[in-house]
Design brief:
The complex is a heterodimer of chains A (about 950) and B (about 90). In chain A, about 25% of the residues lie in helices and about 30% in strands. Chain A is α+β, with helices and mostly antiparallel strands and about 950 residues long. Among the domains of chain A are: about 5-115, 2Fe-2S iron-sulphur cluster binding domain, sarcosine oxidase, alpha subunit, N-terminal domain (Ubiquitin-like (UB roll), Roll), CATH 3.10.20.440; about 160-275 and about 400-465, FAD/NAD(P)-binding domain, CATH 3.50.50; about 620-865, 2-Layer Sandwich (Gyrase A, domain 2), CATH 3.30.1360.120; about 875-965, Aminomethyltransferase beta-barrel domains (Elongation Factor Tu (Ef-tu), domain 3), CATH 2.40.30. The radius of gyration of chain A is 38 Å and the shape is elongated. Chain B has about 90 residues and is mostly beta strands. Chain B has one domain (about 5-90): Folate-binding superfamily (Folate-binding fold, 2-Layer Sandwich). Chain B has one helix at about 35-40, and strands at about 5, 10-15, 20, 50-55, 65-70, 75-80. In chain B, the strands form two sheets. A four-stranded antiparallel β-sheet of chain B has the order 3-4-5-6, with no helix packed on it. A two-stranded antiparallel ribbon of chain B has the order 1-2. The interface of A and B includes residues 678, 679, 721 and 869 of A. Bound molecules: zinc ion.
Chain lengths: ~950, ~90
């Protein structure tokens, strides 16, 4: 127990009047409003919060921001559980539950921690090398259990999420000093400005100076904040830019956490983006630098100034950068005891605070205590002189890494700055500028001038500098380490993925030298923190090992998201049924009352069948199909694609679209047609009716209407631009009620339909427009069942009442509804083509016997030329035929392969549709078969899931081959 | 996600559009050779740099139009109607 709460006024971001309490791993943690989970834990002296991913070493809170590699906790329970969140980035809330992310089997007793004793056996690439033979799968479950992080929620997340799009003139990301100044200047020059801040408060580094009593910093921050509000800049806090995409689009995640919304995703398009994302501190590398209590120096400072938390009772500052001295001053001002400053360098530009003990040219070589630090060994780099200091916290200040993630995502290239050992933006991008620490500008006055000019639109190169001299490498010298007289502890580079200095040495030895190989071989930088605190150290080490600069080793491209994001935030409420809403037919309720079993067909909820008490779908469909053949059935076909084509060139245009000719249709006539893609493949079919000289009614498949309408538009707009045609999709405006069966007309007559529709007065494949029940209806005589059939198209709102009426008057004729499955039985009995079932992405019209008349057609049409390609004329093409089982009883499963010898062997074809025909008393099937048309009468062999079946190739239709039933 | 300028509706996000690939590909006559037809059907240029392509404002006005876009930077240097030809200055 080392951390404690400082007394007021330290801790400007917490409200000591509002206490809160939460549960961490069964322990009660008390904090104040404004605390993060991490600050509350640290204030209570809880240092050890989890275990590492691979070696299961104890780990604590390391940082004070979303760069956190180790302080990972699972928040919430059950369906509300969010795994692996950063304790440093989550506001503490009253009543919350937090658990360590990885502590298998527990935080205190950790069997897997024995792993750590065998660490020498598990270097980089260990899993790949060891578990390749004999079978990785033998080891995988145990390894996954040990290496896992948090636990996922156990059900759908009940919280609500939201998404908003926004357009702004200037977007400034990061509300530190430079961001505030840039936003202010942009607003003062008349631009509309949005300023995003990932933390709960603006101010950044300037705020930490101001909070520790620096009067000039306080004045400056107050001044900026006051002017900002006056200039009309809108500031959004708790909002992290996750990614930067093409044409200045930023996606940002706002943590809202109120009763309406938990998180909100912003998609912000800006004319100009000013990045002011600051810098992330780079840690020092020394043995056992992963122990709980080793933290970034800037974090130790912020916990004191912002949250009023001392991270330890005696703090050692390990530094290679002048910023370590400023932290020392801050801690001293907060009354925290400073054990020593251990400076890797021989000299510093900054002075140590009065009374502080400074070890120059020295390194930490040993850290005692495994779950909490108690002593630190310090050795001089040149002489090796070793001393021991009592301390419970090490503040690590190895330099700074400008946060260039967003700049890199925008396509920016990085430049290595030798003095300060950092990567900064190397070239300018259109519409995107960097200011402040993320541009490498650490000198406050210069950075503010530059940010102001950039805000006003006068971009200039950033004033890179202000950190003094920061050595690239900061590991203890061999001499210093040798003084220990024993093997030193492991030096961790990537704390989250347990990648150590010797792993990087191994990678170099085994020639995994490029940054991409280094990353994959060691898993360096591949954890959820994306190596924010570790990448530069790794590149420096690899550079030294291979005699290159870090720039020559190269950087990997940063990728979104900048910090981990919940999947639900990205889904933003588009889950479950809202992911892809299903369409309901206008007569939906009627089918419900009739016991319809709804399933999805092409985006529509439609009755598959109307099952009687526990009846299965297939027997129900067979029963319904037979009933259509013997009596009359009612079917709702509202999803049928409907497009109106108007214009003086409508007929000529449809001739160009369809394989068949539509211009020869008389008014009131209808014709079936095939649509092809330009490569000749069938892509839709349906009936076209002529309603007037310049007016056609086009029916398409239910699933194909959108793409047919778009294809028509594309041909009209881009190729046949002189054709005066209007293409209007009207599918949802019209309901469609289809009545089929020998008693179809009797039913319609009883329902009051005009005598002119009687089969004697109205021919098959004709259409009539007439009034019925106060509505204008279009009745087409057409049939997908082979029975006398009427398709009644009417304004969609009337569909339900027509179904009800037909149902009522139909009692007399035993009219019954039938579903999609029965329709499939009926059309299979008739051998009618079902697009997508009998055809695929290779089927040409000739393959399904629909190329008659093409040669005689005068007009060109889409896909015509492709039907003459050698592949289209190949004699071996598959053709659509009927199949009957030789025994007349075995069903021929859809997908069964037609073979000439025992598989594995090339196939001769496959079954595309299959049904049991109750009216014929036997199963029937359709199949694509090589040279099928010439093989009628042949007996073929089918192979399906190890079974062999024999079938006879036959002509279709199976039922009513002469089509005599169409007249009722 | 890019932002494209529909000649009829103005600037809109990319997800309102569909890309139709290279624009202004002449459709060969029906009596062309198999080779010419095969080229038209299956072969496209894939330039690194300026590319004249056609886009449809699918979730907007539904109109096709042409764009000259840099395939590396996504910078759009011209927007013109489907019936217009590529500005001379941007000839490949
Ligand atoms: Zn438009």
């Amino acid at each position: 127990m080392s951390g404690y709460r400082l007394s007021a006024p330290h801790g400007a971001w917490i409200d000591r009047s509002r206490t809160l309490q939460f549960d961490f791993n069964g322990a009660e943690v008390r904090g104040f409003a404004g605390d993060t989970v991490a600050s509350a834990l640290l204030a209570q002296g809880i240092v050890h919060v989890g275990r590492s991913f691979k070696l299961h070493r104890p780990r604590g809170v390391f940082s004070c921001g979303f760069e956190e590699p180790t302080g990972l906790v699972d928040i919430g329970a059950g369906r509300y559980r969010t795994p692996n969140t950063r304790a440093t980035d989550i506001a503490a809330a009253d009543g919350m539950t937090a658990k360590p992310g990885n502590a298998w089997p527990s935080l205190a007793v950790d069997l897997a921690a024995m792993n750590s004793k065998f660490a020498a056996l598990t270097p980089a690439g260990f899993y790949y090398k060891t578990f390749m033979w004999p079978d990785w799968h033998l080891f995988e479950p145990a390894i996954r259990r040990m290496a896992g992080l948090g636990v996922a929620a156990d059900g759908p997340d009940p919280d609500r999420y939201d998404e908003v799009s926004q357009q702004v003139e200037v977007l400034v990301i990061g509300a530190g000093a430079a961001g505030l100044q840039a936003a202010l200047s942009a607003a003062q020059s008349g631009r509309q400005v949005l300023l995003l801040e990932s933390g709960a408060h603006s101010g950044g580094w300037l705020a930490s100076q101001s909070l520790q009593g620096d009067a000039s910093a306080t004045h400056r921050l107050d001044d900026l904040t006051r002017q900002l509000a006056a200039a009309g800049v809108s500031l959004r806090v708790n909002c992290t830019a996750l990614g930067l995409y093409d044409h200045q689009l930023v996606v940002a995640l706002e943590t809202v956490d109120d009763v309406t919304v938990r998180e909100r995703l912003w998609k912000i398009r800006a004319e100009r983006i000013i990045l002011a994302t600051g810098a992330i501190e780079r840690p020092m590398l020394f043995p056992d630098n992963d122990r709980p209590g080793v933290m970034l120096a800037s974090a130790v400072e912020r916990y004191a100034t912002h949250f009023g938390v001392a991270c330890g009772k005696r703090v050692v500052i390990s530094t290679a950068c002048d910023s370590g001295y400023a932290v020392a001053a801050s801690l001293q001002a907060a009354g925290i005891e400073l054990a020593a400053i251990v400076d890797y360098r021989e000299a510093s530009a900054e002075d140590a605070p009065t009374g502080a003990k400074v070890f120059r040219g020295s390194s930490i070589v040993a850290v005692s205590g495994s779950r909490a630090i108690n002593r630190v060994g310090v050795a001089a780099n040149r002489s090796g002189n070793l001393q021991t200091i009592d301390a419970d916290c090490i503040a690590s200040a190895g330099g700074w890494t400008p946060a260039v993630n967003l700049y890199s995502m925008a396509g920016g290239k990085l430049r290595w700055v030798e003095d300060a050992s950092m990567f900064v933006p190397g070239l300018t991008l259109k519409g995107i500028e960097s200011v402040g620490a993320c541009a490498g500008a650490f000198e406050l006055e210069l950075a503010l001038d530059h940010a102001g000019a950039t805000g006003r639109g006068n971009a200039a190169p950033a004033p890179v500098g202000g950190l003094g001299i920061v050595p690239a490498r900061n590991t203890p010298t061999p001499i210093a380490l040798a003084m220990l007289g024993r093997r030193p502890g492991k030096i961790f580079v990537d704390l989250q993925n347990d990648v150590c200095v010797d792993d990087i040495e191994l990678a170099a030895r085994e020639n995994y030298r490029s940054v991409e190989h280094l990353k994959r071989y060691t898993t360096m930088g591949m954890a959820t923190d994306q190596g924010k605190t570790s990448n530069v150290n790794a590149l420096v080490l690899m550079g030294e090992l291979t005699a290159r600069t870090p720039a020559e080793v190269g950087t990997t491209k940063f990728r979104p998201p900048v910090k981990p994001v919940t999947l639900n935030a990205l889904a933003a409420g588009r889950t479950g049924e809202r992911y892809r809403p299903l369409k309901r037919m206008p007569g939906h309720t009627w089918h419900e009352t009739k016991g319809g079993l709804f399933e999805e067909f092409g985006g529509w909820l439609r009755p598959a069948a109307y099952c009687k008490n526990h009846e299965e779908i297939i027997p129900a469909a067979e029963r319904e199909a037979l009933h259509v053949r013997t009596h009359v059935g009612i079917f709702e076909g509202s999803p049928l694609g409907k497009i109106e084509i108007y214009g003086p060139d409508a007929a000529a245009f449809l001739d160009l679209m369809y394989v068949g000719s539509m211009s020869t249709l008389a008014i009131g006539q209808a014709r079936y047609g095939l649509l092809l893609r330009e490569d000749g493949v069938i892509f839709d079919d349906g009936i076209v009716a002529r309603l007037g000289e310049q007016h056609f009614w086009v029916n398409t498949t239910s699933g194909g209407v959108d793409r047919v309408a778009l294809a028509f538009e594309e041909w009209q707009q881009c190729e046949y631009i002189n054709h005066r045609v209007l293409i209007t999709p009207v599918t949802s405006s019209w309901g469609n009620v289809t009545v089929s069966g020998p008693k179809a007309w009797k039913l319609l007559a009883a329902a009051g339909f005009d005598e002119s529709l009687a089969p004697t007065n109205m021919k098959h494949m004709t259409v009539r427009e007439l009034a019925y029940g106060g509505a204008k209806v279009r009745v087409m005589r057409a049939s997908f069942s082979g029975e006398l059939g009427y398709e009644i198209n009417l304004p969609a709102p009337y569909t339900q009442s027509l179904l009800e009426r037909l149902g009522e008057v139909g009692c007399e004729f035993e009219a019954k509804p039938y579903g999609i499955e029965a329709l499939m039985v009926l059309r299979t009995e008739k051998g009618f083509l079902h697009l997508g079932a009998d055809t695929d992405g290779t089927t040409l019209p000739g393959d399904v016997g629909m190329d008659r008349g093409i040669a005689k057609k005068a007009a060109n049409f889409v896909g015509r030329r492709s039907l003459l390609r050698p592949a289209a004329l190949d004699a071996d093409r598959m053709q659509l035929v009927g199949l009957l089982p030789v025994d007349r009883t075995s069903r021929l499963p859809t997908g069964a392969h037609i073979v000439t010898k025992q598989p594995p062997a090339p196939i001769d074809g496959f079954v595309t549709s299959s049904a049991y025909s109750a009216v014929l008393g036997m199963p029937v099937a359709l199949a694509m078969l090589k040279r099928g048309f010439a093989r009628i009468g042949e007996v073929i062999t089918l192979f399906h899931l190890g079974r062999t079946l024999r079938a006879e190739v036959v002509k279709t239709p199976f039922f009513d081959p002469k089509g005599e039933r169409l007249e009722g | 996600m890019m932002q494209l300028q529909c000649p009829f509706c103005g600037y809109r996000p990319e997800n309102e559009f569909d890309c139709g690939g290279t624009t202004a590909i002449a459709r060969p006559p029906i009596d062309c050779s198999d080779e010419v037809w095969g080229d038209y059907l299956f072969f496209r240029v894939n330039p690194k740099g300026l590319h004249a392509e056609r886009w449809r404002h699918t979730f907007g006005c539904g109109q096709w139009f042409n764009v000259v876009r840099d395939t590396v930077t996504h910078e759009v240097s011209a927007v013109y109607r489907i019936t217009e030809s590529r500005p001379r200055a941007l000839d490949p």
